[in-house]
Design goal:
single chain, 11 helices, globular, mainly alpha
Length: about 280
């Protein structure tokens, strides 16, 4: 089964790259691109999760979503993916030379104006040259997130986690990106399997490092805004406020999401303002 899944994964990831090229050259219209991109993305994520945990998943299927709903869903994916990009940018930007934020001990290099695609290409080459390097694989995963290549980013984060299971970042981001892909899936069994896999990965991230704040943002948003479990989500969002520094760029956004979750779920209000890290 492993060889078949590897082949299917490679095919789907190549297909996503080909779709981007076809759209850029005008060979397919935007509506066709969205339909095919959503389908390939959901199928690729299911295959990657099957490779990671050994649980075979059926390819997503089901009725096509109306165009208006597809546009709303795509817009939601973009907004939610921005959360990951902001958190990654903050995590990388907070590092000092030699300081670890997620197990990556590289020092910060000079600022670059390279496009996300070029950065991803360079990171891909570095990861290919050092396939056993946690740092190289996690840098490539980050570059893929910035480039919007979610299924490929999940695959790289899974690979990085296998190289160093003590790091929270790969588990947290693989879980969150899987949750984003699950939002696009219409087949209930596959959607549930992907959401369960996302929740498991996030819980593992918290277990590995309870002080890593990104895990709590992702878990809180997964619960409150994807699974409609507002009160459980509120608890996770409160924990982010406890673990994150006061100058974290997502702080105001999390406070807003927390207020919305508490109001929508009619949850008990927090007994006090969460204590924060300096």
């Amino acid at each position: 089964m492993s060889d078949d899944l590897d082949a299917e994964r490679d095919f789907l990831l190549r297909s996503l790259e080909d779709l981007d090229s076809e759209l850029a050259t005008g060979n397919i219209d935007p509506d066709t691109y969205r339909v095919l991109h959503d389908d390939y993305t959901a199928r690729a994520s299911a295959v990657i999760q099957s490779i990671a945990d050994g649980v075979e998943r059926r390819s997503p299927s089901g009725p096509r979503v109306p165009r208006a709903m597809r546009l709303l869903t795509l817009g939601g994916i973009v907004v939610f993916a921005v959360v990951a990009a902001i958190l990654l940018a903050h995590a990388i930007g907070q590092r000092r030379p030699g300081q670890q934020i997620t197990g990556d001990a590289q020092s910060r290099g000079p600022m670059t104006t390279a496009s996300p695609a070029n950065v991803a290409a360079a990171a891909k080459a570095a990861a290919a040259a050092q396939p056993k390097s946690y740092d190289a694989r996690v840098r490539y995963a980050r570059a893929l997130v910035s480039a919007g290549a979610l299924p490929a980013a999940v695959e790289e984060y899974v690979a990085a986690s296998k190289l160093d299971p003590t790091q929270a970042e790969p588990l947290a981001y693989a879980g969150w990106l899987t949750a984003l892909v699950a939002r696009q899936v219409t087949a209930p069994p596959t959607k549930k399997e992907l959401l369960d896999a996302a929740a498991t990965s996030l819980d593992r991230a918290i277990s590995v490092d309870p002080t890593y704040p990104d895990s709590y943002v992702f878990k809180g948003l997964l619960l409150s805004q994807i699974e409609n479990k507002q009160c459980a989500g509120a608890v996770a969002l409160q924990q982010f406020l406890v673990t994150a520094p006061t100058d974290h760029p997502m702080r105001q956004g999390v406070l807003s999401a927390l207020a919305q979750a508490v109001k929508a779920g009619k949850c008990p209000a927090p007994s006090s303002t969460p204590t924060t890290k300096p």
